[in-house]
Amino acid sequence: MKQFNVIKFALVALPLGMFFFGLIALSYTFFSPASQVRDENRSSLNSKTISTEKDLKVWVTRQANDIGPRPTTDEEKTRITAKWIESELSEENIGYRPKVTFLDGKNGNYRNIEAELPGTDKADEIIIVGTCYSSAENCPGANSNGTGVAALLASARYFVGTENSRTIRFVACVGKFQTSEGIQGSGITFLADSFKKTNEQIIGLIYLDSLGYYTDQLEEPRGPNRLKESNLTKGDYIAIGSELSSKKFIESFYSQFSKVYRMPVRKIILSRDSLAHSSEHFASLSGQSYPALQLSDNSIYRYPHYQKDTDTPDKIDYERLSGAVKSLVISIDSMLSP
Known about the structure:
Elements: H1 2-31, E1 38-39, E2 42-43, H2 53-67, H3 75-89, E3 99-102, E4 111-117, E5 122-132, H4 142-159, E6 166-173, E7 176-178, E8 184-186, H5 187-198, E9 201-208, H6 225-228, E10 238-243, H7 247-260, E11 265-270, H8 272-278, H9 280-286, E12 292-296, H10 299-302, H11 318-336
Parallel strand pairs: 5-6, 5-9, 9-12, 10-11
Antiparallel strand pairs: 1-2, 3-4, 4-6, 7-8, 10-12
């Protein structure tokens, strides 16, 4: 008899318990932060969120330590890095629907990843924020270019769910590559060439180079002559570089950036040859007659671990990197809705 009562109780209690558990789960689904309403499939949860030093360190560490060196000669690491960036930008994380462009046909190891936030009344006017996600051979690439990718992701997070007059597009590009089938190129070159074909109205290109190394020591007298002319010789500044044809664009960006950034800012206008020497990626973009600038810590001239196996996350100044990213998104914000 007792056994019958236990069975009877179980038959009643089990469905009731599952019913109440379902109600609790359903309630959590509707009211938890992760399920808040999306506007056009973009999460409004992180709108205008400034990424913290911890956020930036996580992104840099993920690339340099967890993935490791990401040269384009390593197709597997290149693919893993691209898929990780795509995942970070996705609806499940930051809140976009990334567009992936395969540059090597059937293999699909070399790709560019784009995320776009369409504008409202000036949607045909586009501001592009781009970076390269590859590293040098045997180099963890924490600064070059893990910090550039981290800054790109932080910028995408800041603007997700916002409304702006102009369109903003975030692009992570693969470096120079050559496949066993003889296909060769680079993500930056492909991006630059695509501008010619689409005839889009590009207001400006902001290329994010390495942004994480700063020193209060005097810099060595290296680099183009234009860099040696200034009395500002400590390696504690952010450089905003461009060529003469983009002077109006760089002046507009510099005026906003320098108001917010607490450390020194250097505005450097170089010849195209000097730009090609300091950054072939940026030179490819600037060569298309669109206004373009490069934001950089000038690591090619300053950073003692540049493209070495010692370019690790512990070398990064995350406080100053965070300050640079904050100034970057505020500057872009002012340009999106003029």
